[in-house]
Design brief:
alpha+beta, Rieske Iron-sulfur Protein, four-stranded antiparallel beta sheet, three-stranded antiparallel beta sheet, 10 strands, rod-shaped, binds FE2/S2 (inorganic) cluster
Length: 181
């Protein structure tokens, strides 16, 4: 062997080993950074969509099927319990709702909100007295929803009503005294 060749070989081997070691380290570091970047991207996309995509405006569905008219007797209020969907941004929830429905004439149906216009307690129909009664402060209302005794300041609010065949559809509630168009 040429003198000094051994030490050159050792230097080359050491150099290559170090280079390989460096390359491997660089590769692992790059790989780890790439994985972190990917995770960050995966997490950032939904957040960006949530922040940048405008939520749907809060909107209640126009009409909700509340029941059938066959269960109604002329001049006798009936409590209809139904579920209606509420849309709030991306969230759609279903909530229980109630209406006091009265068939006033063959072609005339009205649906009262059960909330007393005084402080919002639930009114109910008292057949014996032929009136709606609020249990909280004893306001009473006629079958047309008019105030008979206070402290309720105004008549019962009404749902917008639509009849399709035998189905009763209820729309939004209108404050008594407001135009219903
Ligand atoms: S809440 Fe009905 S009378 Fe007060």
């Amino acid at each position: 062997m040429v003198p000094g060749a051994h030490s050159v070989s050792v230097a080359v081997i050491l150099f290559l080993t170090e280079k390989t070691h460096l390359n491997r380290r660089t590769f692992y570091l790059t790989f780890i950074y790439a994985v972190w970047a990917l995770i960050g991207l995966v997490l950032a996309i939904p957040a960006a969509v949530y922040l940048l995509w405008p939520p749907r405006p809060r909107k209640e569905p126009d009409w909700t099927e509340a029941g059938t008219l066959t269960q109604l007797k002329l001049g006798t209020p009936n409590e209809f319990i139904f579920r209606k969907n509420r849309v709030d941004g991306w969230k759609v929830s279903s909530e229980k709702s109630t209406a006091w429905v009265v068939k006033m004439a063959e072609q005339e149906v009205v649906a009262f909100s059960p909330q007393c216009p005084h402080l919002g307690c639930a009114v109910h129909w008292v057949a014996k007295q032929n009136e709606f009664l609020c249990p909280c402060h004893a306001s009473t209302f006629s079958i047309e929803g008019q105030v008979l005794t206070g402290p309720a300041p105004r008549a019962l609010d009404r749902f917008k009503v639509k009849v399709e065949g035998d189905k009763l559809l209820l729309g939004p509630v209108h404050r008594s005294g407001e135009a219903t168009s």
